[in-house]
Each structure stands twice: as C-alpha cells, then as structure tokens.
C-alpha cells in the first residue's frame, strides 16, 4: 500500500509510521510526505529517509489541486494525517473515500473539534479533571475530529500530571497505535458499516 503522510510539525508520528513500514509491521511504504509549511521538522525526517516531499502552497483550491496531482503521480492509495494543522478539503476526501485517517491525542468525541490541537488538548483534559486520556485514530470527514472512530487506546491521567507529562505519555501511545491501525488498513482488515468500524484481529498485530 502506498501511503502519504500529511504533517505540519516535528513528525514523530511520521517517523513511527516510516519505521513500521521499514521493519515490515506495515505492509506498505511511505510514498510521499506532504508538509503544510516549509519549516515543518517532518521535512528533514522525510529527506533523511529519501521520501519525496511536497510542500503545500497557495489558496486552498491551489494546494488541493497540486496535492491531488502529486498524490496521483506517486500512486498514493492511503493518507495518514499526523499533526496536520489544516482542514482537509472535500475534493481530497472524495478522492480517497474511507482512505484518510487522523490521529488525535485524546479520547474522542471528548476534547476534539476546532481549537483542540497540540497542548490545548492536554491542558483541557487536565483542567477537566478527567481520569483517563489517550489517543484516537478516526476516519477524516469534512469537519474537525468528527469522522468514525477506528481505534482508541486509553491511559490513566495521574493526579501529578502536567499537560506536558500527559502529552509525552499520550505520544508514546500514538506511536504504537497509529502504525498498528495503518497496518490493519494495509492488510484489508478494517471494515466499515455506517458509522461503525471494526478491525479484524491479526495474529501478529492485534488492535482492539
Ligand atoms: C500528535 O500529538 C497528534 O496526535 C496531533 O499532533 C501531534 C503531532 O505530533 N494531531 P508529531 O508531529 O507527529 O510529533
């Protein structure tokens, strides 16, 4: 499976996905890295791995058209958003029906939506007094963080946790969960029935 990773930041999730492709946990390859800005740290990671990079420029219409073109050229079959700070335009979603996923650093549907990104999420979790947080992988639709949930993994929030502590532990979960979910897509083990998604277990990489 040819995968594109869309990112805006440092790209630790990009790295986790690339590592999993390299060591065979994901039956696929990262064919393209799409960065929403030239300064995104993910670009260096991709270049180090010899993965082609496409930087988005111009209006939404312009960057959508150029992204669709390069996705076609690189024969991309699946898109993983990893810290991508833009709304995905409808044309892109239509071109990849049920083939675009995102990872969110909380247990959706809680702590999602507009403005809920990066440390804002972890600060909100701590402020709410929630006992649990975690990571969610979901299909991408035309709104923020509202698509059907594919997989979640929860961790306890400790009374002593700062937002930074929580972010660190949630990121560890992300780096395990995201490759496992993308592996399931690559093996055709993800099935959708309306808003409900099931993942068939695999003996080598179970995902619940
Ligand atoms: C992750 O916490 C992800 O859940 C969120 O943005 C962060 C990206 O981190 N959507 P990185 O760039 O993959 O290190």
Describe the structure.
There is one protein chain. The protein has about 210 residues and is an alpha/beta fold. The protein folds into 2 domains: about 1-95, Rossmann fold (3-Layer(aba) Sandwich), CATH 3.40.50.170; about 100-208, Formyl transferase, N-terminal domain (Rossmann fold). Helix content is about 35%, strand content about 25%. The strands form 2 sheets. Strands 3-2-1-4-5-6-7 form a 7-stranded mixed β-sheet, with helices on both faces. The protein has a two-stranded antiparallel ribbon with strand order 8-9. The protein is globular and about 50 Å long. It starts with a strand and ends in a 9-residue tail after the last strand. 5-O-phosphono-beta-D-ribofuranosylamine binds near residues 9, 10, 103, 104 and 174. 5-O-phosphono-beta-D-ribofuranosylamine binds near residues 12, 13, 103 and 105.
Q: Nutshell version of this structure?
A:
This protein has helices at 12-22, 42-48, 60-73, 90-95, 119-128, 163-186, and strands at 2-7, 29-35, 53-55, 78-81, 100-104, 132-139, 149-156, 190-193, 196-199. With 208 residues, it is an alpha/beta fold. The strands form 2 sheets. Strands 3-2-1-4-5-6-7 form a 7-stranded mixed sheet, sandwiched between helices. Strands 8-9 form a two-stranded antiparallel ribbon.
